[in-house]
Amino acid sequence: MTDKANATLNKDEKIEELIDQLSAIRHRKDKITNAADFHALEIEVHNVSKELADTISGIKLQEHLSSTENKETEKEFVKAQPKKNEKHGGADS
Predict the structure, then answer these.
(1) pLDDT, tens digit, for every residue of 49-75?
(2) How far apart (Å, rounded) are the C-alpha atoms in residues 93 and 85?
């Protein structure tokens, strides 16, 4: 298996792990007796949810940066840049 395939598998496993954590929190029989208990639960849910969102966003960004379409657009952009000319301050001037 390639490094890229391993990285994708690891990211998918991470997403599933985070979803499982949220599910476990949801199904726990927490005893919330005061505001501090509720606040602790809220912080726990927020932290796992944020990590899930960050992981998914990171995967989507990496997919975009690695896409063939993006690489082609990048090549076209580089080709469209003006070439340096000795008369206009080229590297050898």
Answers:
(1) 999 999 999 988 888 888 777 777 777
(2) 9
- Residue 73, CA atoms < 13 Å, CB-side half-sphere: 7
Alpha helices in the chain (DSSP H): 3-27, 35-66, 68-80
Residue type present at position 11: K
Contacts of 30 (CB under 8 A, 6+ apart): 37, 41
Distance CA 44, CA 28 (A): 13
Give, in order, the Cα–Cα distances in Å from 81 to each of 23, 32, 75, 86: 51, 62, 10, 16
